[in-house]
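Protein Entry — a single chain follows
Fields — amino acid sequence, C-alpha cells
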Amino acid sequence: MSDHLQETLLTLVRTDTSVPNGSTEIAPGDARLRDTVTEVVLPLVEALGPAEIRRHECGDIAARFGPDTDDGLLIQTYIVSQHGNLMAEPHRARVVEGNTLGLEGPAVVGQGANQNKGPMASALSAMREVASPRRSVWLSVNCEGRSSHDGSRRIYGDLGVRAAHSILAFGTNLRVSLGNRGRVDVHISVPGASSHSSQPELGRNPIPPAAAVVLQLAETPLPAAYPDLGPATATPYQFVCEPIAPHTLPSSVRIVVDRRLIPGETPARAVDTLRHHLLKQWPDLQITAGASMLPALVDPRAAVVRALDAFPTMFSRNAFDAGYGCSLGIPTVMFGPGRRDFGAGVVAAEAVSLADCRTAATALATAARTLCG
C-alpha cells in the first residue's frame, strides 16, 4: 500500500488544481479542472476496478465498489486546493524529512498535500484493500470550488449516489470531526452617486454609511454559542468600492459578511435576521445571500463514528461539506491526515506526513469493511 500511496500522492500534488491567483473560487464546470480530473484522477480511480463509475459534466466522479445498495458508505474526496496559495514552487512535489516541518518521518510537500490530496491519496489506497463488499462502497471525487455544497448536490442528486454513512476525506490530524459550524455569505450593497472628490457635494459618498454599516454588524442579533462548536458570528471580510477612478467618489460600496451558523440555524433565516437588523437604519441597502454551507452535527454513537473508534473525536469551527450529508439524514464525519492549523506554516510549506496517510488509508479500509462487510 505504501508505494502506491506515495506515488499517488506525488502525482496528485504535481497536478495544479488550485484556485487561480486573484480569484477566490472555481466555477462549476471549469474546463481546466474538468480536464485535469479526466486526465489525472479518473485513471487512478479506474485502476481500482470499481463496478461502475458515474461522471458529471462538471468533473465530479462517483465510483461504486460492490452491489448497488442504499445502505452503504460514501467516502468523499476533494480535488480543489484552496490553501497554500503563497507557497514557492507549489507543484514541485517532493519527499522531505518531516522534522524540519514539525512532522515525524518522511513527508510530501506541495500545494494541497495537507488540505485535500494527502486524504485523497489515502482514500484511493484504502479502496485497494476493500474486496467484494456486501453493501455499496462509493468513492467520489468532488469538484466543489466555491465553498458551497454544490458538489455534494451533484453527487447525491445528479449522480444518484445513495448511502447510509459518509466519511469526508479531509485533513483533520487523524481525528474524527463530529460537527462544524455552517456559513453563508451576505452581500450588502450601499448605494451612492459618483462625483469628483473636489466637489463631494455634487454626489453622494457611500463610504461613510458603509463604514457605519460595518460598525453596526457588531450589534447583529445572534443565537447563543453552541457547545463544542463556538459562537455564531457576523464578520465583514470584503469592502469593495466601485468604480475605482482618479479623484472620484464611488457610486457604491459592496460589503461581504461571513455569517457563521450553528446547528438549528438556516442560511435563509440568518440572512433575513441580518437584513431586518440593518434595514431599520438604512432602508436603501440591498442585502442578498451568497454561497452557503449548512452546519453539521453527528451523534457520537453513530455507526460511522464507531467504525473509526480507534481515533479521537473533535469539532471544527470552520465550515465544510459535512452539513449537506447530515441534512439528508446521512451521518457524515470528516477524517484524514493533515494538520488543522491554517495559518502561516501551512501557507509557507503545505506538507503531509506519509505515515499519517498510511494510517488513514488503513483506517478508511477498516471502516468500509466494518460498515459494508
